[in-house]
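Just scan this pair:

***
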Amino acid sequence: MSYSTYSSGPATWQERLEEKCREAQIHPPVFQIVSDRRGGRTAWSSTVTVQGQNISARYWYDGQYVNNAKEDAAEVALKHLNGSTPSSPSQSRTGW
């Protein structure tokens, strides 16, 4: 695959999810950032609403990585729309 071919498509999970929603002619995804106070720190995650369903990110992140939480939620939502479920870390690393 050439660089131009690779760069012509959506690069992020958020962009891929938005493209999938456009293709399916459904409302665009709506992201929400959520936080959870944990001791002296705050953990951040994200949910995304697609077709009236709230889909949560799998992981919690430090504040400087909030965009990663949105990417995680977008990945889960996109795989949900495509009919597959992303595996959790424990399931995907059973051989370790």
Observations:
- Residues 66-81 form the longest helix (16 residues).
- The two ends are 31 Å apart (CA to CA).
- The helical segments are 3-8, 13-23, 66-81, 89-92.
